[in-house]
Specification:
Layout (H helix, E strand, L loop, with lengths): L3 H23 L7 H18 L4 H10 L1 H14 L5 H18 L3 H11 L2 H6 L5 H14 L2 H6 L6 H13 L4 H9 L5 H10 L2 H15 L7 H21 L15 H16 L3 H8 L4 H18 L23 H12 L4 H9 L2 H6 L11 H13 L3 H12 L5 H6 L2 E6 L2 E6 L6
C-alpha cells in the first residue's frame, strides 16, 4: 500500500550511496562513515525486498523508477569494495534478494534484470566466497531464465555462466537453486549440454551426468517435446560412451581405481541403462548405430580382463553378505548386460545381432553369482529372456550350448527354461514351476 514517493526516496538514498562509494574509489580513500553507509544500503534493500513480494503494482513502480538498474550498478560497486565485513555481505545479500523478488512472476522485471545484469553480475556473484550470496544469485538467475535466454548462454563468453552454475552445484550440493537451473533450464537445450560437456573436467562431467540421471529417472509424464529432448541427449551420450568405453579397462590396475575418465564411462553407462528402461526412449536407442556392438565389445573386453588377472572384473564369491566392496566399477558388467537386454527387448534385429557377435555365450558365461557385480545373474536371466523371445535360432544356440556343457544348467532353470529334445532337434522351452 506504499506510495510511489517512498520508493522514490529509497532510490535517492541508494543513488547517493553509489555516488559516495564511486567518489571514494576515485580518490583512492576510505569511505567516510562506511559502516553507516552499508547499513543504510542493507535497510533500503530490505524494505524494497519486502515491498515487492507478490505485489505486481510495487514491482511495476520500482522498475519504472529505475531501481533495477540502480541496484545492479550498486551491487557491482559493493563487490569492488575490498573488505569482507558482515555489513557488506548483508548489503549484497539483501540486494540480490530484492532482485529475486522483483523478478518473481514478472516478465518485464526479468527482462530488465537480464538487460542490466547479464552476464557480468552473474559471473561476479556466482564466484563469491559467501554461500548465501551465491545461492541468492542462483535464485535470480533461475527466475530470469527461459528457453530464449538459455540459448544466449551459448554465445562466446556467456557459457562461463553455465559452467559456474555447475561448479556451484558440485561444490555446494545443498544448493537447490543451482540444481533447478540445470534440470529445469540448461538440460532443455541439447546444444548447450554438448558445449558444456566439452568444457568440463571429468569430475564435472560426472556431476552433469548425475543431474541428467536425476531428470531421466523422473516418473512424471513427459510431453512429446520433452521426449524429443531426451532422444537428442541419448544420441550425444551414446556417442560419448562409444568413444570412451575402453577407458574403464584402466580400472584393472589398483593404482588407477579412481581414474576420472573411467568414472565418466561408468556414469555414461548408468544413464544409458536408465534411458533404455523408458519405453519412449528405448525404440530410439535400439536403432542407434553401434551402441549394441559397443556394449557387447566392452563386456567381452572386461570379462576377458577379469579372466587374465585378478582385478575388479574378476568374478568372485567369497563374501559373507556382511561386507561391501567399495570400488567405482562394482556392477559395471551387470549394467552392460542390462543395457544389452534392454536393447534386445522385442527387437528381432538386435536379437540377431547379438547372435552374430557371439554375445549369447558371453552372457551365459556371466550367469554365476559375482560379488563384484551384484544382480548379474538376474540381469543375465533378463537378457536371455529378451534374446530368446520369439527367436528360434537364439533358443537353439542356448540349447546346444547347454547340451555341450558350456552353459550352466542351473542358470537356465533359474530362468524358467529347460532343454527338450524333439525330433533330433534341441528345443529351449519355458517351464512353469510346480506349486509347493
Amino acid at each position: 500500500m506504499a506510495k510511489e514517493s517512498i520508493f522514490r526516496d529509497l532510490l535517492e538514498i541508494l543513488m547517493s550511496a553509489s555516488s559516495e562509494i564511486e567518489q571514494a574509489d576515485k580518490d583512492s580513500c576510505e569511505l567516510v562513515d562506511r559502516d553507516t553507509c552499508l547499513l543504510l544500503i542493507a535497510e533500503c534493500f530490505r524494505c524494497l525486498r519486502n515491498a515487492c513480494v507478490e505485489c505486481a503494482k510495487n514491482q511495476h513502480v520500482m522498475r519504472n523508477l529505475g531501481l533495477i538498474s540502480t541496484s545492479v550498478h550498486l551491487i557491482k560497486l559493493l563487490h569492488g569494495m575490498q573488505i569482507k565485513e558482515e555489513l557488506l555481505l548483508t548489503a549484497l545479500r539483501c540486494s540480490l534478494q530484492f532482485l529475486g523478488n522483483i523478478a518473481a512472476g514478472n516478465g518485464d522485471s526479468q527482462k530488465s534484470i537480464w538487460k542490466c545484469a547479464f552476464p557480468d553480475l552473474f559471473l561476479t556473484c556466482l564466484t563469491y566466497s559467501d554461500e548465501k550470496i551465491v545461492a541468492y544469485c542462483c535464485m535470480v538467475l533461475f527466475t530470469c531464465l527461459n528457453s530464449e535466454k538459455v540459448r544466449e548462454l551459448l554465445y562466446p563468453g556467456n557459457l562461463t555462466v553455465a559452467l559456474h552454475v555447475l561448479k556451484v552445484y558440485k561444490e555446494r550440493l545443498e544448493s537447490e537453486w543451482s540444481f533447478l537451473i540445470v534440470t529445469d533450464h540448461l538440460l532443455k537445450c541439447p546444444e548447450l549440454v554438448k558445449a558444456l560437456y566439452a568444457k568440463l573436467s571429468n569430475q564435472e562431467r560426472v556431476t552433469l551426468l548425475e543431474l541428467i540421471m536425476e531428470k531421466v529417472s523422473e516418473k512424471n509424464p513427459v510431453t512429446s517435446e520433452e521426449m524429443n529432448l531426451f532422444m537428442r541427449h541419448a544420441d550425444f551420450l551414446a556417442g560419448c560412451f562409444k568413444e570412451k568405453c575402453k577407458a574403464v579397462l584402466k580400472l584393472t590396475s589398483a593404482a588407477d581405481a579412481e581414474d576420472e575418465e573411467a568414472l565418466v564411462t561408468i556414469r555414461l553407462l548408468d544413464v544409458l541403462c536408465e534411458m533404455t528402461s523408458n519405453n519412449g526412449q528405448l525404440e530410439h536407442l535400439q536403432a542407434l548405430p553401434g551402441l549394441l556392438e559397443t556394449a557387447i565389445d566392452t563386456l567381452r573386453l572386461t570379462h576377458l580382463a577379469g579372466k587374465q588377472a585378478v582385478n575388479i572384473f574378476t568374478a568372485t564369491h567369497t563374501m559373507t553378505g556382511q561386507e561391501e566392496i567399495s570400488h567405482p566399477a562394482v556392477g559395471f558388467k551387470s549394467h552392460l548386460i542390462r543395457l544389452i537386454g534392454n536393447l534386445c527387448y522385442k527387437n528381432k534385429e538386435n536379437q540377431d545381432k547379438v547372435y552374430e557377435l557371439d554375445g549369447i555365450p558371453l552372457i551365459l558365461d556371466n550367469c554365476s553369482i559375482d560379488d563384484n557385480n551384484p544382480f548379474v545373474n538376474q540381469w543375465a536371466v533378463y537378457a536371455i529372456r529378451n534374446l530368446t523371445e520369439q527367436n528360434e535360432r537364439n533358443q537353439e544356440l542356448i540349447a546346444q550350448t547347454e547340451e555341450k556343457g558350456l552353459a550352466d544348467d542351473s542358470a537356465l532353470e533359474s530362468m524358467g527354461l529347460e532343454i527338450e529334445k524333439r525330433d533330433d532337434k534341441l528345443i529351449l522351452r519355458s517351464v512353469r514351476k510346480k506349486p509347493s
